[in-house]
Amino acid sequence: MEHTPTEGDGRAALRDHVIERAMSARQKYGPTIDMDAIRRVLDDRAIVRYPVSLRFDADGLLPGEFAHAEPLGEHPKHGFALVVHPALEARSDVVVMAIAYHIPPINYGDIAEPEDCEAFGAALLGMGVEAYYARLCELADSLM
Asked: Got the DSSP string for 22-71?
């Protein structure tokens, strides 16, 4: 009897892939993922599908928003500018967390859900998902 994949199967496959990519990046560039390491992750097309530049700027960020990816063209192949709140540039304890969170939507577009972002960031940084999420919430609150 043939199994027809469900939306849940697709979500699970995406989540597994997201975690696998994060673990691969951690193995290749870690175990400590600092600013230099995250820049290498962003430049690695096996991890991040499309070119990404970092821009520390508050223009266009909503209150409590620590970063967002802006497309640089009509197709993802044109790349993205990851706009990161300038207050994070000197905060090495959290800037990498903020950047990591945005890698799944850059790779997978709108099908990447917040849980995928949390799973990727936590796996990349060697944290539990709940601890990663709690730190992101603290980070967002600190920018209000």
From this structure: HHHHHHHH-SS--HHHHHHHHH-TTTSSS-EEEEE--TTPPTT--EEEEE
